[in-house]
UniProtKB/TrEMBL annotation:
Descriptive protein name: Uncharacterized protein DUF2529
One matching Pfam family: DUF2529
Native source organism of the sequence: Scopulibacillus darangshiensis
SIS domain mapped to chain residues: 31-174
Gene3D superfamilies documented for this protein: Glucose-6-phosphate isomerase like protein, domain 1 (3.40.50.10490)
Gene Ontology biological-process annotations: carbohydrate derivative metabolic process
GO molecular function, one term: carbohydrate derivative binding
Amino acid sequence: MLKIFTTQLLGVFNTIQANNEMEIEDSARLIAQTLISEGKVYVHECGISHGIAGEAVSGKNRLPKTDLLIKEGYTAEVDVADCVIISTDAAESHNALILTEQLKEKGCTVIGISGCEAEGESLFKDIVDVHLNYGKNSPIVPLNDHKKIGQPSAVAALYTYYILYLTIMEILDEQDFLRIL
């Protein structure tokens, strides 16, 4: 069962990478520009937490000049120089949509990370500047009764963050900005 899960999970990762190649590059460039300018990067998770905010702000793979958008009930003051990463488990999350609209009114760049069934059916995808889709993951390990278990949503969301993080750091390193951040 573990070999099946691992094999299927590698397929999920490969699909995320293949389907988001341009979006990862675009997002990474926008975030890198924010980091080397006067802006700040903020992260917010709507719905079930997948650990992206914790990793981006205080984990081993944290981004420089990055903080939580909402901390202890207070929302950070954002402006046009800032970039906000919003992660949501449901691309049609009412909270994610409202928050994105508010941030866009303030001129912020908004990067969305969510799982969508298929391209073209997500309002969230349409209103963010760049959308990274980790897919609407279904369970991937079959049981004897033909049901499946092992839905990899959290792992897929974190993998999406990791490939974004690695691309951002690669851009900053190529431009020799890591030493000043």
